[in-house]
């Protein structure tokens, strides 16, 4: 199955991700070595990084050309990681231009790192009523999420999907974040694992290691089957049973 990464910051000069074209290619090269074949480039769309669709598309073309010239067999697609406050300021054509992986009926929403977003349920309902599926980025990195799993479950039942960061799943972001990722997996409130790669550093590639940590068919479901279905606007495949996980090897953050 094709491994798909739906959350990356590989477009240089748009946000806090790749600093230049050389670094962008190195991030993509690391992903390709890890088995990724389709990458959604998702620069931040928020007040401090007011990315426009035109700038995203221009950067996407430059990186794809450089990746092709380097002989790296990876397809890059567009998108944006849209903050909840910025969402209301995007008109329908602009929002469609930030459709994840080129799918105008799929958007990546940035889950905040602190506090429960009070408008989340409303914004997800608004999107879903317009036929747009929200993919919630990295809720496991927010400390209050374990206290709000019922709210998150209601949002998921309404049709939203949830993305975990690979480095959270396999322990690279520490024990506490990994335990929150495991909680969401155990509650079946996670559907996708992505890298959220910003540089060739702590969040580089890593989908294979995260899939192995989850184990079995569920790892492939999270990194291949569901991401592919989302890109194609297809019904999500049935979630396989969880396998015995590999033990997480904790890494000190320094």
Structure description:
The chain has 254 residues and is of the alpha/beta class. The chain has a single domain (3-232), classed as Metal-dependent hydrolases (TIM Barrel, Alpha-Beta Barrel). The chain contains 10 helices and 10 strands. Strands 4-3-6-7-8-9-10 form a 7-stranded mixed sheet. The chain has a 3-stranded parallel sheet with strand order 1-2-5. Strand 8 (133-137), helix 6 (149-158) and strand 9 form a beta-alpha-beta unit. The longest helix is centred in the first third of the chain and has 17 residues, at 53-69. The protein starts with a strand and ends in a 22-residue tail after the last helix.
Question: How would you summarize the topology of this molecule?
Answer:
Blueprint (H helix, E strand, L loop, with lengths): L2 E6 L12 H13 L2 E6 L2 E3 L2 E2 L2 H17 L5 E3 L3 E3 H4 L4 H6 L8 E5 L9 H10 L3 E5 L11 H10 L2 E5 H4 L5 H12 L5 E3 L12 H8 L1 H17 L22
How would you concisely characterize the structure shown here?
With 254 residues, the chain is an alpha/beta fold. Helix content is 40%, strand content 16%. Strands 4-3-6-7-8-9-10 form a seven-stranded mixed sheet.
Main attributes?
254 residues; TIM Barrel; seven-stranded mixed sheet; 40% helix; 16% strand
